[in-house]
Amino acid sequence: QRLLKTTGGVMSLQLILLLALTSRAAGLSIPLEGEMPQPPTIISHTSSPVIAFPYDSSVSIRCEATGNPPPEYRWTKDGQDFTPPQPTTTKTGSFVVYNKQFAQFQGKYRCFASNTMGTAMTEEIELIVSSVPKFPKEAITSIVVNEGDPIILKCNPPEGLPPRQIHWMSVDLQHIEQDERVTMGIDGNLYFANALQNDSRQDYCCVAAFARIRTIAQKTPMIVEVKRSNLRYYKHVLSHLSVVPALNMSTVFHFSPTPQIEWMKMGGSLAERAQFDKFGKMLIISNIEESDEGKYMCKAKNPAGEAAHYFDVIVEEPPKWLTEPPRSQLTVIGTEVHIKCSVSGKPPPVITWRKNGEIFRVSPSNYVLDDTVELHNASPEDSAVYQCEASNQHGSILANVNIMVMNMAPLILTKNHQYDVVEGGDIILNCSVFGSPSPETLQTTEGERYVLHQNKSLQIFRAEKDDSGQYVCVASNSEGRSGLTAVLDVKDRTKIFNPPQDVQVVSGTAAQLMCKAECDKSLQDTFEVMWMKDGDEIPLSSKETSKYSVGEDMLQIMNVGLSDQGMYTCIVRTSLDEDKATALLTVLDVPDAPTNLELLVLKSPKNVRLSWIPGSDHNSSITEFIVEYEESQWEPGRWKHLQKVPGNQATAELVLHGHLNYQFRVYAVNTVGPGPPSEPTETYKTPPAAPDRNPENIKIQGHLPHQMDISWEPLLPIEHNGPGLEYKVKYRRLGVGDEWKEHLVKRHSFVVRNTSTFVPYEITIQSRNSHGWGPEPKVVTGYSGEDVPTAAPQDVAVEVINTTVLRVSWTPVPPATVRGHLGGYDVHWVRKRSLLNLNRSLDERQSLSFPGKRSHAFVPGLEPFSEYRLTVNVFNKKGKGPNSDPVTFNTPEGVPKQVPILTASNSQKDSVFLVWGPPPETNGILTGYLLQYHLINETTLEVVDSQEMNITGADTTQWQLQSLEEHSLYRFDLSACTRVGCGPSRAQESYIATQTVPALFNISSDVSDTFAKISWTAREEQQDLQLYVAYMNNRDGNWRISEAVNTSQSFHIIDGLKPGTVYTVRLMAKRLLDNGSIFEGVFQTRMKGVASTQRNLSSQGWFIGTMCAVALLTLVVLIACFVRRNKGGKYAVKEKEDLHPDVESPGMNDDTFCEYSDSEEKPLKGSSACSLTGNDAIGDGVSRDSLVDYADGGGEFSEDGSFIGEYSRPKHRGSVSEPSGPGPVTA
Prior knowledge:
Immunoglobulin-like, repeat, mainly beta, Ig-like_dom_sf, about 45% strand, single chain, 94 strands, 5 helices, disulfide bond, flat, cell-cell adhesion mediator activity, transmembrane
C-alpha cells in the first residue's frame, strides 16, 4: 500500500510494512464428564482471504467448534445475518459456494458458534471472486519523437489477482531488449531515456501475465517513429515506488546521453539487504525492518549535469500480540477477573471487546480500562466467551477468551492407571485434576529422584526395581477431595550383549554382523531388530534374491560391493526402550587402474622411465605394481610381465631390447588381488643394436662314447636386437694346449665328433647379428661321451646288525674303469628260503642304489630267520658295471608278528573264554603265548590290578581264563613268542557277568526295498527277556543297535535302508558288540523296480499256484536234510572243530553307542552263537558247532531277501530249522 502526500511541491511517501496476521482462540479445557457444560471453542476455520478462481468448481468455507452442549452455528456477511446456501454437514458450520454463485457471494463473512455457555466467533473471512483481467479498448496513435528525445510507452495494465508480471514484447513474442537507456518501470511503462533511430517500430506490445488464474492479457501494439535530428543534452526525472513484500524504489531520468545512477540513504547507510535492479534504476530492500525508515536519495549524472530525487519511507505494521493472546480462565465465584488484550501495531490498533459475539456493555461491576476488561465480584452469570479484536488499516487479530466462574470439587481426569518403565529410565505418573478452586495435590514421596510438577504429575528419574508398586494421588479443595491409584512396573532394560564388531570383507563375498540382545520377558512380543546404514534404514526382504537377510541374531550382506561400505547400526527396541550399537564395515577390493602413464627417455633409447598416477587402493594398501609390455613384431596382442615395482613407488626404469615396437601398461596389486590394467601407452619404437647377451644354460653331454653334444638356451626373439642372429661355437681339449676350433651356426646345438671317451673340453658360445657381436663369452668345461663301467667292486663283506638290517662293505672300483661320471653303487639281494622250511625255494629279489663315491651301505627290510645271497655293482649315466662275486648269509631268529584276532566270549560268573588266531609270521620257532590281563576301574578307566601267564604250545588258540572278579571290566593283552622273545600284543576288553541268553528259533526275515522285518519265536519261559537287534551296511561297516526289544514281541522292523544293499544283522543278549550274538545273518534289500514287478506277478493266479508247489517241494527237501543231520552230523562237526578250531570267532567292540565301525579286530561276518537250552550252562561246544555246521552251504542271494550266510576262511552259513526234540535248536 502507498500513501502519497504533496507538501511544498515535494513528494512525500509513507510506506506500510505488512506483517503476517494470525488469529488465535485460546480454549479452556473442561472435562466432558456426564452433563458438565463447556463453552464453545473454535477449533478450525478457513483463513482469509478465500479466492474463487474462474476454473474452480466450488469453494468451501469452514467453521468448526467444540462445546457441551454441541454448539449451533450462524453466519454474517458484510455485517448482516446470512444463511449459508449449501451446508456441508449438520455438525459443523461449513458451507460450499459453487462456481455459478461466485459473484453473488463475494464479501466478508464471520462465523458464530453458540451454546448455553456462550458464543465464540471467527475473524472476518473475505471471499474474493477473481475476474478475467482485460486491457480496456482504446485508440492507439503513433508516437513521433526526435532523435534524443525521451519516450514513455504507457501500459496501464488491468488489475487482477497478484502476482502480476508485465513484459514488453513484439508481435512475434520476442522480448524488447532493455538496458541502461531503455527500462520498464514499476508501473509497467516502458521508458526511453533518449530515443535512437533504431527504436522505430510498429509492434510495441505490453503483456500482463496472472499466474494464479492462468491468464495473459495483451495490449494493442503501439507505433513509435523516431525522426533524425541533431542530438542534444536533455534531462528529466520520473520516480516510482512499490511496497510489499519488499520495498522497491525506482527513478527514471530522461537524460541524453544516458546517465549514471547512484542511491543513498540520508543520515545513514543502505541496509545490507539492499539490492539493485533495472540497471541501477531500482532499489529493492527485502524483509523490511523498522530501521529501514527514513529519507532516500537517487542521483543521476551525465555530461549535461546531474539531478536528484528524494523518497520519504515510513514503516508501519498490522496489529500483533505483544506476548500471546489472552488466556481462558477458570475462577471461583466472588473473585476479580482481568482479561488483558496486549497488542501492538502502527498506527496503534483499536481494540473492540465483545461478549458472546455482541458488543461488550459496561456496568458498574464490569467495565473496560484501556486494553483490559475487569469483572468485579464475578458470578456464574459472568461465565461467557469474551472476544478481543484489535485492528488498524493494515489488518486485525481476534482472540476468543472462555471465562468460567464456578465452584466444583476435584475431578480426576487421568484414565491410565498402569505404567511400565525400564530400569534406569524416567517415567511420569499423570494425575490430571479438574476443580474450582484449583485443587492441591498431596505428595508422599521423597528423594532427589522424585519431582512433583505443577500439573500434579509425578516424575521418577532413573527408575529402580524397588520403585515397582502402587502410587496414590490425592487432590483436594474447599469443595471436596478425590484420589487416584497408579501401578508402576519397572522392567529389565533392553540391551545388546554381543554388539556388531568392525569388520573388513573382500568385495564379492558375504559380510556378517552379529547383534545379540536381550529384553524383559514381558516385552518379548514387542521386541524387534532394525538395521541402519549411514543413518538410513536397511530394507529387509524374505526373498532369496535380497541383498540383505537377517537371521539368528545376525545381518548378512550378500555379494558385498564398495557401495556397501559404511557405518551399520543395530537397533533393538521394545515398546518401552531401545539400545543400539554401531560397527564399521570396510570393503576391500582390488585397486583401480593407474592413470596418466608417461614415458621419459634416459641415457639411451633402450633405457626409459615409465611413470603413472596410482588409482584408489580400496582400503587395502598397494603392495606392488606390475609393468607389462606388448610388442608387435613377434607376439602381437600378448601382454607379458616386464617388471615389479614396490607399492610406494609410481615410476619404473625399464631396460628394453632393440628393433621392437613397444606398448606398456601397469596394474596394481594389494592383498585382495590384482586390479585392472591401465590404458596402454602410445607405441614406442627402439632402434636395432648388437645382442645384449650370450646364450645361457650351456649343456655338454655325450650320448655316444666318441662324440660331444653341445646345446644351449637360445636368445628369445625379442632379444635378437636386430636381424641376422647366429652363434659362434669355440672348443678345445682342456690342459693339452690345443688350438681353438670355431663354427658359426644358426641353430642352438652343435655336435663334436671323433672324440676320446670321457675327456674334458673348454667351450664358449657368442651371439651376433647384422649390427655386431654380443659381449665376450664365458668359458665352460664339459666332457665327451661316457661308456659303461668295466670293473666290479672287490672284497664284498656283510655284517648282520639285527634280524632285518645288514651292513655291506666293498672296495671301490678304480676311477679309470668307471668311464664316466660316477653315479654310485647298486646292492642286490635275494631271499633264497626261510629257515623254518628249508625245502621251499623263495627267490624274493630286492635292490637298493646308493649314489656317490662310497665303500659301504646299510640294507634294511630283511626277513628274520632266512637265507640270503648278495652282490654289488658300480653304475654311471651310461649304465651298470659287472656284478661282484656273490656273498651268502643268514638272518637271525626274531619275534612273531601280532596275532590277527583276539575275542572274549561266553562270559560267566568268574571266567571268560578267549579265542585267537596264530600270528601270520612267526619269524622263528613259535614257543607259545604270553597272556596279560588287567582289572579296569570302570569310572576312571585306570588299571587296578595286573596279572600274566605263559601259555605253552604253538598250536593253542583258545583258553578258558578262571578266577576273575564278577561284574568287572578286564583288558586282555595276548602276544605270540619265540625263543628270542614275544612280539607285539593285541588287546581286547570284556565285562565279566552271568547273562541269560534267550533261546530263539524260527528266525526269519521279510525284506523290501527300504525296510526289513526280523521275526523269531521264543520259548514260553523266556517270553519276557530282552534282546537287541544290530545291523550293518556291509559297504560302510558302521553298526547300528536298536533299543531293548522284548522277546515276546516276536519281531522287529529295521527301516531307513537303502535299496539293493547288503546288510548284516545280529540278535544279541546285551547292547554290546563284544558279546556273543544269539544269531547273525545277511540279507539284501530289493531294488525298487524288482519289488514292483513281484507285486504285479503275485496278483496272478498261475503265479500263486506255482509258488505254492515250489514251497511244498522245498519243505520236503528240508525235512530230509534235517533227518540226516540228526543221525550224527553234529558229532562229526564237533570232531572236525576239535581238529581245526575256528580262530576267528566273534569279537566285538565294547562300545555301547548305536554306531560302530568295522576294523581288522572284528570277527568274520556271518558268525552266530546258538543255544540248545535256556539254562546258564551254555557250552562253547554248541557255539562252535554252529560255526562249522553249515560250512558246506552255498551263499546266494534270492529276490525274497532271505538270510544268506557270508563267511570267509572257512565260509559259514546260518540256517533256521524247526526243533526236533524237547530243546529248541537255534542258528
